[in-house]
Amino acid sequence: MEPRIGVFLCNCGGALNNIDFEAAAKEVSKLPGVARVEFSSSLCFEEGKQRMVSCIRGDNLDRVVVAACSPNFQEPGFQEVIERAGLNRYLLSMANIREQCSWAHTGDVTAKAVKLVKMAVNKVRLLQPLQTKEVPVSREVLVVGGGFSGVSVAVQLARVGFSVTLLEEGKVLGAGMSELESFYGFDAGQVINGAEMDERIEILTSCPVLEVTGRVGNFTIRISKDGQEIVRKYGAVVVASGYQTKLTSGSEAKSGRGIVSQEEFCRMLGDSGLARQPKTVGFLFDFSDESSRFSTLATLNNALTAKTKWGSEVYVFYRSVKVDSQGTERLYREARDCGVVFVKCEAPPSITAENGRVKVKARDVFAGEDVVLACDVLVGEELYLPAEGTETLSSLLNIRRDSRGFFQDENVHIYPVASERRGIFFVGECRGDLGRPRVLADISSVVAEVHALLSSGKMRVETEKVKADPQKCVACLTCIRVCPHGAIQLVRADGGKEVAGISDAACFACGVCAGICPAKAIAFQGYRDEEILAQIEAI
Amino acid sequence: MIIAERKPMEEIKRLIAPYKKILVAGCGTCVTVCWAGGEKEVGLLASQLKLARSAEGKDVSIVEATVERQCENEMVAEIKDKVASVDAVISLACGAGVQTMAEMFEDKPILPGVNTTFIGRPQKEGVWVEMCGACGDCFLDRTGGVCPIVRCAKGLLNGPCGGTRRGGKCEIDPDKDCAWVLVYRRLEKQGRLDIMRQYYAPKNYRAVKRPGKVQAAKA
Amino acid sequence: MKAMDKQIIAFCCEHSAYAAADLAGKLRLHYPENVLVIRVPCAGRIDVIHILKALEKGAAAVLVMGCEDGACHHITGNTRAKERVKYCNMLLKEIDLDGRRVEMFNLSPNAPHKFVKAVNEVVNTIRQLGR
Amino acid sequence: MSLENKNVLVVGSGVSGLSAALELANAGTDVYLVEKGAVVGGVAASFCCKATDICSRCSVCVVPDKIKQALSHPQIRLFTRSTIKEVSGEVGSFRVKVLRQPQYVDEERCIACGLCAQVCPTEPKAIYPPLAGATPFSYVLDKGGCLRFKGEKCSLCKDSCPTQAIEFDIKPKEQELKVGAIIVATGFDVFDARLKGSLGYGRYPNVLTGLDLERVFSREGYLRLPPSGREPGRIAFIQCVGSRDEGHGYCSQVCCKYAMKLAGLIKYQNPDSQITIFYIDLQSAGKGFAQFYQEYKKMIRFIRGVPVEVSQVVPGELEVKFEDISQGKVCREVFDLVVLSVGISPGKDSWDLARILGINLADDGFFGTKDSLASNETNVDGIFVAGTCQGPKDIPDSVAHGMAAAAKAIQVLAGVASHKTR
Questions:
Q1: A72 contacts in chain C (CB < 8 Å)
Q2: Where are chain D's structural domains?
Q3: At how many degrees (to 10) do helices C112-129 and C17-26 cross?
């Protein structure tokens, strides 16, 4: 049946005065399938919208072209209008004759406007209606990692009504929350207790993840528990696998000969039965790894404690303090005021062992001369690394890692706590050395995101917006390999043949798959090949 | 899976030079999977030819068609009208497909648009590697499932050549693993290293019957 | 600038280039009017065949415009688009057409100047190529 | 747990306010987004993209995205030019009086056609388009320049307006909103570089702030010196202007990175330019920044030591006096352009707002929080802070902090809801 297309031209209150709308309307009305051309000067105002609705109804229009401003802002609005008139909202195409025509050029641009409308008419003719549907989602959430971030996120998720499984590969919760982290100002016992007391949180320790299948709202996860396998369904997964630190390798890091890690030093500080309190303590950071906020924070806290608790002489050798997280500058000043000596160096100091002490030799840039110091204890520089098992976890979850091995590749700014796969989130240091304030914000952000996704127990999705035609699909797996959001898997088609199945819930509708399919089997409604080529046809 | 590669444009142009109306015929099986002759590639080649001919100011008429398996008469029959309407067909199927078409349309020149290269499998997205040389005398049971005939650059039957690089890489192509290292590791894992001690007489290439034919026993 | 008879097609990612083009209009940064924008959800949607068909239809040039490298909303959409454009250049070269008729640009939604610059660049290239 | 019929007020429509509003709206609450100014997006909306051949991860492009999503969200209601006058009630049932300032140009009707500016008889025009990228993109009537407000009878713009968006005679409107929770996201003020008189800002046209430079790039797309239109060759960035000093006991967290990224952009556009960054401690931490930093180190000269004085030798040339700490000597060098990397200062209106809402300010002038582990919660239940009004943050951190505040609001609303049903 020949479509009945309605074209609505708008001159934006007269602002598009370099288009001759009368001439344009005449041209447009000649296009095949165009049943009505309507002119307005205020289509986006309520009066204009009402007029559109009555035109669509009165003239039995079945698809609509709006030639006006940019669809980037107005498309949802006009979709609503045609929906009001009883049409499927996807049977709309817009011609941007304002920002990308009238305003972008000088002189008469009627011809270009007509061309843009023609492109839109060509496209709208081929558009197909699209339905949305609600799919049920599980309200259970899996949190992987029982450190500070993992436990905290579990507690907050439970607070807003989710059932949470808190999974820890190690034997106990909070193993990562060592004494070292106490300087962040929280009580590890209290945090863990909060999780243990909450009946909505199930805690599984010594339980690694074996396999992850399924999609957002409906992940199936195999977990190993006491030598047995348990299989669970989850709506979302929160990764909180944490980090580890390692003393830098090389000459200066001969641990055990007076050179210790921040954590070891922290333990010494807490040890009341320490045989001999070190008189001189040195710290070292920002030479091997210039992107660590952790080193600064750990150094400042430990240096301050050593000074106040032991009254030791404390020297800090560093290049730049990383004070770009809240409260750190204040801590830095406090340390200086307490008498911690900061020795700024451009080059890494040389370190040698001498009579059971550690000799540090460095060039102080302020004094312009060499400083030589024999320390009882030197807290060495540490590298901030992803936790062990991060790689395995990333391949189980099919999510990317950055060049340093942490979770979340590029595009950090677009998806702050989300992975590229819908329903999988990150929290805390598994994404890198973010600084404590950011970790705290992320914990709550994840809660907000999970809440928005799962709280109603269902998810509204567009049905088969992107779909592989089972007749044409040759199951070459190309789309599965290229899908940036892990939304495609092999499924059995009706005939029993294996084909690419695109999950409506997990799909982000980018079309990367449709652009590469060698069998031309993938149809992306609104951007099908036919629809794009029809626009080209109009040039 | 049969792997093929599109022929160089120069050659294709030469092949089709005498003809005005041409059908680009794709195959929806192996060559689709290896991005050489599926519907997409048919479209690209057709478009390229149209562009080329119009740039040269030549008359041009290009028709496109893709069948599910070009090596089946019944499936090829579906496009016989299209074939009838053209001067020549350029087939993007493997040799079996080209020959099927040639046999069915004896009066039409059926031109190969791809070079059929080997039997292989995808290594990663967009990369295929040879896995099987179709030698007709499979002995993968004795090599831990690694075929040295095609995966060893020299096709050696009795252990590595001696030029294996550090890390078990091939002397000829350092990006490739030495097939014999792979064989060794696999057998070691299975506790079957004793098989390595066996000596293989020069391979009986008579098993490769040319032209080959396989008849299913049950048929 | 007076219109040339040949059109230039710009496939623009709605997250970035399309928004930049809108902003260019709002700021009245003028550019040649033979540029026709086709909106796509991601540069990664573009198929090589779309580009070839546009040239077949008589477009003088095709621009594929996506997000900045590393800022694609679909992680790899823009890099794939770049690869496809490169592949397309190769296909054109095979048939002795100038590959410069097809170009990839990366820009952010708040870079209207970059949009206009890219468009002008291509228009100039086409002028040089003639035809 | 349903959040239907729950309202939340978000004060401030910068990137963290927008993020909070979006998160709340997606969770099903109705959001009132109150903005003091005429446009949404906050300061970050006027920043420029700093991409070279690759994205420099400056995150500025997140802002138009957020604006687009928020403004088209059916559950977010925007009040521009509006301020909070009075707050009463408690968590779950706050009553908030909002004052909407007169809007001579109705942003819901203005279609930015520009006809008004064409007919405006004054010079410079008293009605003009907003900053690049402003949303809503509605024209601004400057009362100070308008003949009408000087007592003349002119109404040319009003008469020319095709959508009747212009009205001269309007009065502030007061409205009461009932909300369950309040999120304060009022942002920051850029440090006023004039306060550091010796650095010459405001005296010499070629001393700019980082913000000025952002705006030059977003307006023009390239860098030219203000009076002459010349492309500067020798450029100095001075770090920590308004950070880590007497009055500012904190690091602004953004300046090192924006300075390096802007320098990278300048260098990309003009490879012959010579750029020097004067600094104390380089803040090169942050996800994904390490590899950029390695690149920047190759093309930018870093000098440890912050200059104390900038003076003009001849017009167009500036002499910078600084102590190169690594060399241990005082040096003078001439530059074509000096960029002051101004920091983040607490908002001027914070004090007023703190009084109205009954929330505390911290020593540094930013909004205070309950404790260091609760970075969104204030001393008043149900009132949360988000973004740079709580302390310096970059764009991604502001987004995360806004989302976090939304989560906290959802948690208290959920708590209130379950409390009531019990």
A1: 14, 18-19, 22
A2: 7-101+172-187+347-421, 115-160, 192-343
A3: 100
